[in-house]
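User: Fold this; tokens only.

Assistant: Input:
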Amino acid sequence: MPRSRPQTRIQQKNSEAILEAALEVFSQAGFRGATLDQIAEGAGLSKPNLLYYFPSKEAIHAALIQGLLQIWLDPLRALDPAGDPVAEILGYIRRKLELSRDFPRESRLFANEMLQGAPRVQGPLQDDLKPLVDEKAAVIARWVTEGRLAPVDPYHLIFSIWATTQHYADFDVQVRAMLGPGHDPFAEAQTFLDHLFRSSLTPPGKS
């Protein structure tokens, strides 16, 4: 991790440059394929200079993942138990799509880590993500019990939202190749997913 003492402006700039370069390298090459030399070159620093800020590739990766998890958790945290159930879930879908649009490299970084068995994020998954998912799944289950949502498994609903929204970041090239020029994948996805989830989550007899 970066040194704990307060950083000068130059040190902060260099730390940010390292993390930005590492994000690019890790999102393309994965953890195993990334090297400190590639990250240092991308940051415009020598390798010894890079190691002044981060002692290892693992430390850089951990800093990126920790920051990414906070960004990734915010849309789910915003799901309001006191709100209208369908509107709250559609809002969550919208926020997840916006993340996929605005942070595609971060999405691919996380996907690469999951595909490798999440060896470096088991702690954050259990300590940060799981309690939040459990909490929001309980809210969704309550909405179903109250008849305010159509019957749905809360966990698989959340998983399906992740799959359908993050697809547009992780498979951006494929999506754009299939749609062809003149399309806005994220705007079109928003319209489609809004209709798909609204129709499947609205309780029978309600419109």
